[in-house]
Design a protein that fits this description.
Layout lengths: L16 H10 L1 H21 L4 E9 L7 H8 L6 H8 L2 H11 L3 E5 L6 H6 L17 E9 L8 E5 L4 E6 L2 E7 L4 E3 L4 E9 L5 E6 L2 H11 E6 L5 E8 L2 H59 L6 H30 L5 H24 L4 H35 L5 E9 L8 H26 L6 H5 L5 E6 L2 H6 L5 H14 L5 H4 L4 H16 L7 E5 L7 H14 L4 E5 L7 H4 L8 H5 L5 H4 L1 E2 L5 E4 L8 H5 L2 H13 L2 E5 L8 H6 L4 E7 L5 H13 L6 E7 L3 H4 L12
Parallel strand pairs: 13-20, 14-18, 14-19, 15-17, 15-18, 19-20
Antiparallel strand pairs: 1-11, 1-12, 2-9, 3-8, 4-5, 4-9, 5-6, 7-8, 10-11, 16-17
Helix pairs in contact: 2-12, 5-7, 5-8, 8-11, 9-10, 9-11, 17-18
């Protein structure tokens, strides 16, 4: 019977969404197990992680209107406080460096805990157990007052092992440096290490690691843990937050940062007042001297001219001239102040220079009017103007000096600490619920992706249509038998022992066709018997070779049970185990491998000696015999051909089980001498390419494959939801 091959509905590379969904359904328990495993791992990780605490404080930066005297004067001079600059100051090495020094953040004291879970147990309050020697447990600590190490030793762990409450031993790189006492500055390694431990609250045997990092590294670490946020757009409120594993240390460090920032702000304002006061005091003697010179010149001129009085017009000019000189001097003073703060291109500096130019023009106009006065009036006016102007400037300078002295004494800065640092009661990290959710989702996604990727890579034969697309008619699709799977597990002592016990007690063997004749797999083999009857009508003999592309496809199961089914149909059947390397068919019949095909072909046994009668009427079998060193050469001998011819005459059907064709050439040798050759493919194991190569290799040896058997077919969602569905039912 010749079947016409059908065309595959889709190529292997086509994306079959139904099949992918089916793969997920088939592996739902694996996906669930992996997801739960990741969730458990996330829970364990979150539990064992060191908790991170957060301390925060609130600082206010006041504007010029609300600031103290110095800030108010600076505001009047045009200087505005910038929040960005204050943020930079807070994060500067000037502020953070002092905090590192005061809190000794360059020194880290890390207790040696029990591996993995020691820190968690210590947080739970577990005290030191009897089996622990050097681990540090709950309630144990040391207070290090001083540690100095050479720069070359920075970063290395200095190990301190507690001997008792007053003494300790120091070890560096497994080198014993000596023993020290509490409260004493101890020197080790020739002075390269200086250590003073103030207090020990730990049991003997406890070990602590001391590390001294560089100051810059400690500053960078502190800056990384410090966050500053502006509360509102123009509020001037800054919220400072510091994170760390030690809540109390985070609080103390943040308080130190706030206090240092406040102190430097006050010092900065006082320094500004100090500079202004120094400038004013420097100018005062010069102005006083100029005033004295002007008065001397005026008195001398009056004595010479015999006390000349000014007219009303000249007096008015004098008053106006003095006012202009006063304004010009004030502008000159402001120019010197602004020149120290701003560049000449600053808008405030430019506005001041424009006002100064306007006053200068008014002064020039007044000077032109003075030129029209009599000579004596002009001289008196100029001299009296110099005296009065110098008096005004000198008085104004004295007043400013007094104001600056008062301002310097009352400097409070423009920064206030509204809320001192407080550590939050609960840790902010790790976020256990979030970690568990994320790891669970990760496990689910990874398991789904893994199943889909493996399903895409392992594209084994799943439907008969895929075999027919390779021009291989499918004579039978044999479902997977759960009972046979349990009894054919390899390397299972319990299974083999159970099988031997059944043979002894009930005379049964490993043939599924005999143990359970109604099994769905046996029903499929009965269908193969019918199909093969018509397929062998044109064959030149009644010998059938059953082979496969690779090991483990179930060809021996097919051969033995198909032979039993045919024998139950009143045929005389002989099944031959031609796999002389690893054949195991004798186990199915409850016999031994000795006295088989290899012994017959080597001439040590006769045909009647190697043909054995089974428990099924009409069924005989021939084991593989003793494993020979040259199986292929034995099959190529004339004795094998004579044996096939003789058994073909004795039996109605001869079934030959051969090794896989892609592993050895035995199947190609046997296939040339039989009338019918069948290829067994295992469901979801052999990809179409492998089946095609096996068929091609047999064809290259002159063996025409009559058809294929799809073995161990399972009812899977991947095939049910896919483009192809497999349908098979039991009918009892």
């Amino acid at each position: 019977m010749q079947q016409t091959p059908t065309t595959a509905a889709s190529a292997d590379d086509d994306l079959d969404l139904g099949r992918l969904f089916g793969l997920l359904v088939d592996h739902k328990w694996w996906i669930l197990a992996i997801t739960v495993l990741f969730g458990v791992m996330g829970s364990v990780y979150a539990t064992l992680q060191t908790p991170i605490y957060r301390a925060d404080s609130l600082v206010q930066i006041e504007s010029g209107a609300n600031a103290g005297p110095i800030q108010g004067l600076a505001f009047m001079a045009g200087e505005e406080s910038k929040i960005e600059a204050e943020l930079g100051i807070l994060q500067s090495r000037m502020v953070l460096g002092q905090a590192v020094d005061q809190q000794q953040l360059t020194l880290s004291v890390s207790p040696v805990r029990f591996p993995i879970i020691g820190e968690f147990l210590s947080r739970q309050g577990m005290t030191k157990p009897s089996f622990s020697d050097k681990s540090v447990w709950a309630g144990e600590n040391i207070s290090v007052a001083k540690l100095q190490m050479d720069t070359a030793l920075n970063g290395q762990a200095l190990q301190v092992r507690i001997l008792n409450e007053k003494r300790y031993r120091v070890v560096l790189a497994e080198r014993d440096l000596g023993v020290g006492e509490v409260g004493v500055n101890e020197s080790f390694a020739g002075g390269s290490v200086v250590l003073r431990i103030a207090d020990i609250q730990a049991r003997p045997g406890s070990t602590f690691n001391l590390r001294l990092s560089s100051r810059l590294a400690a500053i960078n670490s502190l800056r990384g843990r410090l966050s500053i946020n502006l509360q509102g757009k123009d509020s001037g409120l800054l919220q400072l937050a510091l994170q760390g594993p030690d809540a109390d240390q985070a609080r103390r460090t943040l308080d130190t940062i706030s206090e240092i920032y406040l102190l430097q702000n006050v010092q900065r304002q006082a320094a500004e007042a100090e500079k202004s006061l120094a400038f004013l005091e420097e100018q005062a003697p010069k102005i006083r001297k100029e005033l004295g010179n002007a008065e001397d010149v005026l008195n001398a001129y009056r004595s010479k001219q015999e006390s000349v009085d000014l007219s009303m017009e000249t007096q008015t000019m004098l008053t106006r001239s003095v006012e202009l000189e006063k304004q010009l001097n004030e502008l000159n003073f402001s120019e010197k102040e602004l020149r120290r703060r701003f560049t000449p291109s600053h808008p405030q500096y430019q506005a001041l220079m424009e006002k100064k130019a306007q006053v200068s023009r008014e002064k020039e106009q007044l000077e032109s009017q003075v030129e029209g006065l009599p000579e004596t009036q002009q001289q008196i006016l100029r001299m009296r103007r110099d005296v009065e102007v110098n008096q005004e400037v000198y008085v104004q300078l004295l007043n400013k000096i007094q104001e600056m002295r008062i301002a310097k004494a009352g400097t409070v800065g423009n920064v206030r600490i509204l809320d001192e640092a407080v550590a939050q009661p609960g840790p902010i990290a790790p976020r256990k619920k979030l970690i568990i959710v994320l790891t669970t989702l990760m496990g689910g996604m990874l398991s789904v992706v893994g199943v889909l990727v493996l399903g895409m890579l392992r594209r084994g034969i799943e439907t008969p249509d895929q075999l027919e697309a390779l021009e291989l008619p499918v004579y039978a699709t044999v479902p997977l038998s759960d009972e046979q799977t349990k009894l054919s597990e390899k390397n299972s002592y319990y299974t083999q022992h159970k099988l031997r016990k059944l043979n002894r007690e009930h005379g049964l063997n490993g043939l599924l066709a005999l143990r359970n004749p109604t099994d769905i797999s046996i029903e499929a083999l009965r269908g193969l018997r019918t199909s093969l009857h018509f397929a062998m009508l044109e064959a030149h003999n009644n010998c059938v070779m059953i082979t496969g592309p690779s090991p483990g496809v179930g060809k021996s199961f097919i051969s033995a049970n198909f032979a039993a089914v045919c024998a139950q149909g009143t045929q005389r059947v002989l099944v031959i185990d031609a796999d002389m390397r690893k054949g195991r068919m004798h186990e199915a019949f409850g016999g031994k491998s000795a006295d088989g095909l290899s012994d017959l072909l080597s001439g040590t046994k006769q045909l009647d000696d190697v043909i054995r009668i089974s428990d099924i009427d009409g069924l005989s079998f021939m084991s593989r015999g003793i494993a020979p060193p040259n199986p292929a050469e034995l099959l190529m001998q004339e004795s094998f051909s004579r044996m096939l011819q003789e058994v073909s005459e004795r039996f109605d059907l001869v079934i030959i089980d051969t090794p896989p064709i892609l592993a050895v050439t035995d199947a190609a040798i046997v296939g040339k001498q039989v009338g019918t050759s069948l290829l067994v493919a295992r469901f979801c194991k052999n990809p179409p390419k492998e089946i095609s190569v096996a068929k091609q290799r047999l064809g290259n040896s002159g063996v025409s494959v009559k058809g294929a058997i799809l073995n161990a077919v399972e009812r899977k969602a991947a095939t049910s939801y896919g483009n192809y569905g497999y349908y098979n039912y039991s009918y009892k």
